[in-house]
Design a protein that fits this description.
Layout: H1 14-25, E1 30-34, H2 44-60, E2 65-69, H3 73-83, H4 88-114, E3 120-121
Parallel strand pairs: 1-2
Antiparallel strand pairs: 2-3
Helix pairs in contact: 1-2, 3-4
């Protein structure tokens, strides 16, 4: 079962912090959520996630970075926390961690069920994996 480790806020030092977590825990792959619309289309948020995942892949090479559809993870996390008795104020502080755990668990479950990893690997054009 996937469990939240930490939430890293986007901004200066975020790639370094994630790299530190990955190194300390011996990560074999990094999963980044890809926000899409309900229809599966990508907008500005998905473009931002792709850029972030590429920068992370460059930083962490040769550790692979994978983009996985994150639709509904935040909604499901809010619902699970609400059912667990957390009020909306309490949920705010942990919903990102819970959504990340749901994303990772979903990716692991997909791979177990299909024998193929969920989502798509971030490919680097030059100077890294690819």
């Amino acid at each position: 079962m996937a469990s939240p480790l930490a939430t890293v806020s986007r901004g200066p030092g975020d790639l370094q912090r994630i790299g530190e977590f990955a190194a300390a825990d011996g990560a074999i792959e990094i999963v980044v959520g890809l926000p899409t619309t309900l229809a599966g289309r990508e907008g500005p948020a998905a473009e931002d996630a792709r850029s972030f995942a590429t920068a992370l892949a460059i930083r962490l090479a040769p550790v692979p970075v994978r983009l996985v559809d994150e639709r509904f993870t935040t909604v499901i996390a809010h619902d699970a926390l609400r059912q667990g008795g957390k009020n909306s104020r309490d949920r705010r502080s942990v919903v990102d961690k819970s959504a990340a755990a749901l994303l990772l668990q979903g990716a692991l479950d997909t791979e177990r069920a299909t024998g193929r990893p969920a989502g798509e690997i971030v490919r680097l054009r030059s100077g890294g994996r690819g």
